[in-house]
TrEMBL record:
It comes from Acinonyx jubatus. It comes from the Eukaryota. Residues 515-534 are annotated as: Disordered. Keywords: Cell projection, Cilium, Cilium biogenesis/degradation, Cytoplasm, Cytoskeleton, Flagellum. Belongs to the CFAP206 family. GO terms for biological process: regulation of cilium beat frequency; regulation of flagellated sperm motility; sperm axoneme assembly. This is Cilia- and flagella-associated protein 206. Essential for sperm motility and is involved in the regulation of the beating frequency of motile cilia on the epithelial cells of the respiratory tract. Required for the establishment of radial spokes in sperm flagella. The gene is CFAP206. One of its GO terms (cellular component) is ciliary basal body. It is found in: Cytoplasm, Cytoskeleton, Cilium axoneme. Pfam families: FAP206. Residues 522-533 have a biased composition (Polar residues).
Length: 566
């Protein structure tokens, strides 16, 4: 609508759009149908995008165009047996009511604390909040010890009971939706091969029913993923709660008084953990209610396709699951050598293969474009085509080869099909192509658009140590004293004379050779045995005693016998 009203001032354009939406709501209310402004706005865009309605996006809407637009929107909104309308209603409801983990706030956020307090000083607000958390922690500790804490629900036990029950319910609903989608796919696959059968089944709106069921399946998978994450968080928080309570018991024990600096931080941590349990409880409740409120948007299936009609349509057909379809062509992979310009990604060559954002929510682009909207799951194992920084999967190798020959042609066909069925814009994630806002339910996947493949391959490189000739001067010296030393050395060489001599041994030198006998072992034996004895030293000093004077004179006498005398 922004292009339609491009010639008007912004305020006037917004006023015209609001009037159109208001008029649509009033017309529907007159027929007993309550329509939200969000749904009416979505329907206006869907009707304008559909080329069969004849609206020109490049000119301003006339009064007759506005009347026609309102009439078409009201007609589509009052069609109670149209699966396409049910899908759009489901998308709008999910977008308005889905709450992710990141958006969930505390049960008592700090923004509401200011309305509770009469004082406006931040310090007092902070102190009151800390006091509340400490009191909460004390009550939780008393409850664990069995000495108080009445009126506090056992949130961990409630969550441990609610999460498996909710998961089981969603699993059963998901299985039912997938089985129904497989049946529609089997019928439409046969219709695509038989044009005559296509004319007979056109009034049944099988494709619209398939889109409705696939969208329901997608929403259930989003909810189930959040609940699984919730279960993991609860399990971790239960361990933390037990550890905090045990630490508090060890700190307090049987003491009559404990310093507040030791216990208050633990009380605050207990309060924060309990607040997290409350958040998880609210999240589980929201997701459970959201699942329940999505089921009414499937009512057209029972009206259009009773079990008897489905059995007649499925007579002689083989219903295949998505997993079975992938296994059929698991080994039939794309050969990259057949393509020079296109880039193909495979699990063994791409590190983040599972994290790539596949276009059209993983459905085969070629099949959807050539069969007027049949949704068949693509098989990433065959190979993922990278085209203009986007990634495409296919259900067979032949489909991949044909799409790779002319990607733009098939992308345009898919875009034109989405204009006729507006519910495909969200189902196949085509928001960027239609310049509209991304739904809140898909905000957490925005970062995936920037994920680039990390390819892996075996490679080796070799470089020369020095590509250019070396420019290092080994003779360069920066030390002044070293330069002086060399200068003195050169100066001294000028006063030297070179002499040469030749000796008789070096004159007419020639090679000589000699011959020797190898050594041999030899032994000798003496004639007799003999031994010697070292004489014992004997020294006598005379005059050491018996003298009459004050001075003693000693005489040293060597009495040791000679060696030859022993």
């Amino acid at each position: 609508m922004s292009r339609v009203s491009a010639r008007m001032p912004p305020t006037q354009a917004e006023s015209v759009i609001k009037n159109i939406i208001r008029e649509i709501g009033q017309e529907c209310a007159a027929h007993g149908e309550t329509v939200s402004e969000t749904l009416a706005a979505f329907m206006v865009k869907a009707v304008v995008l559909d080329p069969s309605n004849g609206f020109n996006m490049d000119r301003t809407l006339m009064k007759s165009d506005v009347q026609k637009l309102v009439k078409l929107c009201v007609s589509r909104l009052l069609d109670s047996k149209n699966p396409s309308l049910d899908t759009i209603k489901m998308q709008v409801y999910f977008d308005m009511n889905y709450t992710s983990r990141a958006a969930l706030q505390s049960i008592f956020p700090q923004a509401e604390l200011g309305t509770f307090l009469t004082l406006s000083k931040k310090d007092k607000e902070r102190q009151l909040k800390e006091l509340t958390m400490v009191v909460t922690g004390i009550r939780l500790f008393n409850r664990d010890c069995g000495k108080g804490g009445e009126g506090i629900d056992d949130l961990p036990a409630i969550l441990q009971e609610a999460i498996p029950a909710t998961t089981q319910h969603i699993d059963s609903q998901l299985q039912i939706a997938q089985d129904q989608a497989y049946r529609y796919t089997a019928i439409l696959e046969t219709v695509a091969k038989n044009p005559l059968l296509s004319m007979e089944l056109q009034p049944y709106m099988l494709k619209e029913a398939l889109y409705n069921m696939r969208q329901y399946e997608t929403f259930l998978q989003i909810i189930l993923s959040d609940i699984i994450t919730c279960a993991q968080e609860v399990e971790m928080m239960i361990k933390q709660l037990g550890a905090q309570l045990e630490q508090l018991k060890m700190t307090v024990k049987s003491k009559t008084a404990v310093p507040t600096s030791q216990v208050f931080p633990i009380f605050i941590a207990l309060s924060n953990l309990w607040t997290s349990f409350q958040d998880e409880t609210v999240l589980i409740s929201v997701l459970s209610n959201l699942t329940t409120h999505l089921e009414p948007f499937l009512g057209a299936h029972e009206l259009l396709f009773p079990e008897k009609v489905m059995q007649n349509l499925l007579d002689g057909l083989t219903v295949k699951t998505d997993v079975c379809r992938m296994k059929e062509h698991m080994e039939d992979r794309v050969r990259p050598v057949d393509f020079r310009k296109q880039e193909w990604l495979f699990p063994e060559t791409t590190a983040n293969f599972d994290k790539l954002l596949i276009q059209y929510r993983g459905f085969c682009a070629y099949t959807f474009a050539t069969t007027d909207g049949l949704l068949l799951p693509g098989n990433p194992a065959i190979g993922i085509l990278k085209y203009k920084e986007k990634y495409y999967t296919f259900n067979t190798r032949d489909a991949a080869y044909l799409f790779a020959e002319s990607p733009e042609n098939y992308i345009d066909l898919i875009k034109e099909k989405a204009k006729k069925n507006a519910e495909l814009i969200q189902l196949l994630e085509l928001h960027q192509q239609f310049e509209t806002l991304i739904p809140y339910s898909q905000m957490k996947d925005v970062d995936k658009h920037h994920i680039k493949p990390i390819t892996k391959c075996e490679s080796s490189t070799q470089t020369d140590t020095h590509i250019l000739p070396p420019t290092i001067m080994r003779s360069y010296e920066w030390n002044e004293w070293e330069l002086r030393r060399k200068a003195i050395k050169l100066a001294n060489l000028r006063r030297k004379v070179t002499h040469s001599v030749q000796t008789d041994l070096s004159h007419m030198r020639r090679e000589n050779c000699s011959q020797v006998y190898p050594p041999k072992d030899a032994s000798t034996q003496s004639m007799r045995e003999s031994s010697t004895r070292v004489p014992r030293p004997q020294i006598y000093i005379a005059g050491l005693r018996g003298g009459q004077g004050k001075i003693t004179y000693g005489v040293k006498v060597n009495l040791t016998r000679a060696v030859d005398e022993t």
